[in-house]
Amino acid sequence: MMDNRKLVVRVEEKKAADAKKYSAEMEMASPGIKKKEKSKTTVVKEDSHQFERLCATFGISEETMAIALEYPDNIKLGHFWRFMGLPTCCFQLTYPTSPRIRWGHVLKHLIEFVICNFLAIYILTQYVIPQMREAVPAFRNSDYLEIFVLTLKMAVPSSYIWLLFFYGLFHAYFNFWGELLCFADRRFYLDWWNANNLGEYWRKWNFPIHSFLMRHCYFPLRRRRVSGATALLVSFFISAVFHEYLMIGVLGKVNGIAFTLMILNVPGMILQRYLKDSVSGNTNNILYWLSYLILGQPFGILFSFYQSNPDL
After folding, report:
1. CA–CA separation, 57 vs 51, rounded Å?
2. What pLDDT shows up at residue 115?
3. In whole angstroms, how large is the CA radius of gyration of the chain?
4. What percent of the chain is helix, strand and coil (3-state, nearest 5)?
5. Torsion angle defined by CA atoms of residues 12, 15, 19 and 21, in that order, rounded to the nearest 10 degrees
6. Are 226 and 125 in contact (CB under 8 A)?
7. How far apart, in whole angstroms, are the C-alpha atoms of residue 89 and residue 106?
8. Which residues are catalytic?
9. pLDDT below 50 — which residues of the chain?
10. Angle, alpha carbons 205-208-214 (nearest 5°)
11. How many CB atoms sit inside 10 A of residue 208's CB?
C-alpha cells in the first residue's frame, strides 16, 4: 500500500516538473510574449461549484454574475449615457428591459404630463398667488388670525398642486421615459397615501431617491457598524440639504424651512416607534394629512413668499 502511494507521488512530481520545464522553454522561445492573465470571471468559472454557489446565494443568473465579477473593469461610456437618460438614481451595468416600445403608452404619458402642468399653473395663478400676496401684510403686521385663515384657504389649492406634481412627475414623466427607453423597472412609488407612519411614507413616496440613499448612505454606514438611528439621521440630513438646495433655486435665498421640515422627520419617526402600541396607524395617517398637507405645506408656502417679498 505504501509503495503504491510513493509511486503516485513520484508520478505527480514528474508531471509538475515536466510542466515547469515546458513553461520555461516556451518563455525562452517567445521572450516578448507575456502570458495572458486570467480574468476574475475565468478564475471563478474554473471552479464550477463555486460559481454556481455564488449565483444561488445572490439569486441571479450566470450571465449577470459574470458581469458583476468583471465590475468595474467593464464600464463603458455608453453605460453612463444610458444611466443619465433612465428614470433611476442607482447606476447598474444591466437593468430589466421591456421587449419593445409601446408608442400608445408613450403618447398617453406625454399627454398626462402636459395636462398636469397646465392644471398646476392654472391653480397657481388663479388661487395660490393671490393668497400669497394677501399674506405679506399679515406677516408684516403679525396678524396671526389672518395668517391662520389664509393658511386654511391655501390648503385645498396647494394640495391639488402637490398631487398634480406627484402624478405628473412620478407617474407620467417617469413612465414616459421608462417606456421610451424600454426601462422595465417601473416601481417609482407605492401607496404612500395609506402609510401608517413616517417611515413607511418615506419608503413609499419616492423610490428612486429612497433607493439611492439606502444603497449609498444608509447601508454603507450600517456595514461600518454605525447605529441605525445615526445612519437614519445622516440619510435625512443629505436629503434635507438637497431639498433646501431646490428651494434656494425657487426662492433665490436660504430660509431653512425645507431643511428643518426634513430633519424633523427623524425625531418624529423615533417618537412614532416609541408610541406604536399606543397610537394606531390610522391615527398617524390622519395626523400626517392634517399636519403636512392642510397646515404645514400651505403655511410654508406663505412664509417663504413673505421672506422673498417682504415689501410687497
Report:
1. 10
2. 97
3. 30
4. 75, 0, 25
5. 110
6. no
7. 21
8. 243
9. 1-9, 11, 15, 22, 25-37
10. 90
11. 18
pLDDT on residue 44? 53
Which residue's entry shows cell 412627475? Answer: 169
Cα maximum dimension of the chain: 107
- Candidates 249, 287, 45, 292; CA nearest to 151 is 292
**Three-class DSSP category at 74:** coil
Task: Count other Cβ atoms within 10 Å, centred on residue 258.
Answer: 23
C-alpha cell at 308: 422673498
Angle subtended by helix axes 297-308 and 144-166, to nearest 10:
110
* Cell output for 184: 422595465
Alpha-carbon distance of 30 to 228, in angstroms, equals 59
- Would you state the pLDDT for residue 296? 85
The pLDDT assigned to 22 comes to 46
Query: And the C-alpha cell for 53?
Result: 454557489
* Residue 33, helix vs strand vs coil: coil
Cβ(155)–Cβ(58) under 8 Å?
no
pLDDT of residue 17: 56
pTM score, whole prediction: 0.76
Nearest to 87 by CA among 20, 197, 177, 182: 177
Beta bridge partners of 97: 183
Query: What is residue 10's predicted lDDT score, i.e. its pLDDT?
Result: 52
SS3 letters across 164-217: HHHHHHHHHHHHHHHHHCCECCCCCCCCHHHCCCHHHHHHHHCHHHHHHHHHHH
166 sits in the region (left: phi over 0; alpha: psi -120 to 50; else beta) called alpha
Shortest CA distance to 277 belongs to which of 191, 193, 192, 197?
Answer: 197
